[in-house]
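Input:
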Amino acid sequence: MELHIDRDAEGSALFRFDPRVKLVCIFALIVLVSMVTDAVALAFALLFAVLLLAFSRVPPVQLARGYLAALPFIALSSLTMLLASGPGSAMAMALRVSTSVLLLLLLVRTTPFMDLLWALRWFKVPALLTDMIMLTYRFIFVLLEELERMRLARKARGFQGGRSLLDRKAFQVLANTIGMVFLRSYRRAGQVYAALLSRGYDGKARTIATYRVGGRDVALGLAFVITGVWTLALQMGWYAWP
Amino acid sequence: MDIGAADGVVRLAVIALKNVSFEYPGGHRALEDVTLEVGEGERVALIGPNGAGKSTLLHIMAALEFPRVGEVRVMGHRVDRRSAAEARRKVGFLFQDPDDQVFMPSVYEDVAFGPLNMGLPEEEVRRRVEGALEASGAAHLARRVPQNLSLGEKKRVAIAGLLSMSPPLLLLDEPTANLDPQGRRDLVNVLAGLGQSMVIATHDMSVAFELAERAVVLKGRVLFDGDVRTLLKRPEVLREANLELPSFSRLMMMYREHIGADFEPPLTVEEALALLKAHR
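Output:
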């Protein structure tokens, strides 16, 4: 199973940029965008996100896949707006959420996972949260393998899966599987905690990451500031396209 | 605390257990009156059937469980809940399932986890990580992610994670279980090349023979503690602990009976061959 979150990060043009700068800029712009209602202003922000993605050289297929995963949510929220307050708001909602999703994809696709966690820690995000994200990411794969083994074991002994949603027997088997997964996870959690303790864990994981804010980070930050100000200007009507 | 070893040299006990008994909540008695010392640089095979308390004993040695009766000392210091963190730093524990142990998202980060917790400067951490990966034969895996490694590779990464903390004592829980022959051979070679004191819990008698000069047979209590060669001459101990000699050893014992010669059971295939040549 080749599923690796950092796969594209190293090939990206934004790879060695300071993750703290990326994190702050992207979250600030997302917050700003979430308050903007003007379609032109939103389109401008979206254009910026797309240009930045093009510059970052993240494989378009990966981006498309990430965006598609978010599409149902975008569609649902836009549909709600369409029914509640008309096509203009729906359009704005679609642009707004798309921009946010693309910006987040940019963040996770160009930043090594451990460096992102390091940046979060630097901003004083509680260790409980960052460590949990870290361990979850590692153990998702262990859990998936376990589920796959259990699926095969069921199949090997003749389990066919439900023929309909009302197949009680199939549900019983699946419920047992879920119970088993909980039990095994519980046991594993105990082991992992023992392993953490025996290697000196004191409630706060430490990692090596050394970044210094350099010229290119300032340039990236400036690009975000300009985009933010311009988007705001379009929204407030300080500036209209000629 | 010093103990006098058989060769007359006084060695420091890396770990010493005195009259340790352990009972799980619910009343299951896992260990009874275990007294055991491991000297510096000594390798001890901990042998016993399933449910004999091997894992419990290792957990106690690793300061992950605390016996209500008896005393545990690591490098002369008494282990209790308060001093546990200090003791854990001196004891490296290899878990049976490396997925429990290699918990960081990348190999390099995982090996660096212990040294970073020790508060070492970055340069020293990097030096230790590289040294540990080298010593465990995992240097080429540094940039990989754990979920794509084979079991043998994961085990070696887990060992690197212990070595980077340079503990004087290693505890290994069934290190060769489920490995393929090549993975098993690689792991035994890695372990044989290390200078640390070791306690190796195993069912695999040939691994025990290859790595350890001393054997402790456990079945709730200590049935035997001594030289591995002496253990082979104690069939009643082997029987009580449900142990089986490697097939070449059993073959040589049958051969001995057949030709009416007198020699000790061989510990390795090479020894068996030498005996065959001498007694044909």
